[in-house]
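Appendix B, record 7
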Amino acid sequence: MFKTIREDVQSVLDRDPAARNVLEVLLCYPGLHAIWAHHLSHSLWKRGFKLLARWVSQIARSLTGIEIHPGATIGRNFFIDHGMGVVIGETAEIGDHVTLYHGVTLGGTSLQKKKRHPTIEDHVVIGAGAKVLGAITIGAHSRIGANAVVVKSSPPNSVIIGVPGQIVLRSQGQFTSDKPDLEHGLLPDTIGETLASLVAHVGELEKRLDGHTVVSPALHISDHGIWHGEDFAI
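Structure tokens (predicted):
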């Protein structure tokens, strides 16, 4: 038990630069309190005391703003930063060294009493407000962007963004470091890249139709990611 407590405290110190010392972590991190309460409720759930387990989880929910069903399976060094509004369903499975931010939902998509919540593999980081829904698997060392809605499985070393979530495989080798991937600003713009390709393609077609004369593009392209002017076709 004390080994688990030390690991959980150290995971906070390693992943949150705002954490200054052990005492502050013990007193001021509701994500940590919710995880410890889950250890108790999950133990009761496995021993058949399901109503008592649910009651413990509801007490923890009222104190921390984090709802973890006692049936959920959670691995080592799990960290919930800030935590308010996090919901983890009954059949969710979470691996080791996983990081969640506030507003994350690991939700179910079926009324049948079977596996209906996601499986999150090791070293996954899920950004604020993201929703991962259904009995899908998020591969190890993946990162889910803030407010993404993920409804299909992803391979390891993926970045998932958008609604519904678009999967982008990272091409810079295998991200197998034990350190969490917290570069939340490094997210691809799949819609922007698609529109840019469309604009280029339309431009080529217009050149062919107009005898290679220079015409204004039918769509506008932003200048280094910044839009200017007032009259936009999109």
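Remarks on this record: The longest helix spans residues 190-209. The mean pLDDT is 84.
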